[in-house]
Amino acid sequence: xxxxxxxxxxxxxxxxxxxxxxxxxxxxxxxxxxxxxxxxxxxxxxxxxxxxxxxxxxxxxxxxxxxxxxxxxxxxxxxxxxxxxxxxxxxxxxxxxxxxxxxxxxxxxxxxxxxxxxxxxxxxxxxxxxxxxxxxxxxxxxxxxxxxxxxxxxxxxxxxxxxxxxxxxxxxxxxxxxxxxxxxxxxxxxxxxxxxxxxxxxxxxxxxxxxxxxxxxxxxxxxxxxxxxx
Length: 230
Hints:
By secondary structure, the chain is mostly beta strands.
């Protein structure tokens, strides 16, 4: 066991069972790498590797018997913390900020009772774009990291939003959108102006997609919870 990393003997024994590792992000000073250790769909761990020394530090140690998922890790602009998605102490995967000094999480999406599937941090670290799966629909959100409040993007068609990525200018956000009337195409959101531009127009085999019906949400209560059909 590495004395600098309590529990690393357990990690190494897991590695022998064929786990996978993925680099997620460089620290702003390029001195550290944030990496994900994947055990299963319900169990992952975040580590920080020091590039010069090779030392690794477990950022998310296991507590008790609970299996926890962590994903999408990104260093904050000042390098003092990381942004992640996690189902720690929750039914849903929440967007969270983990302070490296305080070694604790601040959850940023408690106001959304749905899974956060993906996110991207703007180059200057001032905003986070993230996608939540709400009633089976992927919804785009933009969050101000200083205030913790959302910036309301223009209303998009009901559909699936994915692959959110900021432009280097920190103003434009690219993403994919597909719906009942739209094939998967690339769009750009101008956050400052509040406008959306469609970059691609996929062919639909000559069909007039404007005549396709929009999905309707039908909800009914079961003995356990509300069930939604789209």
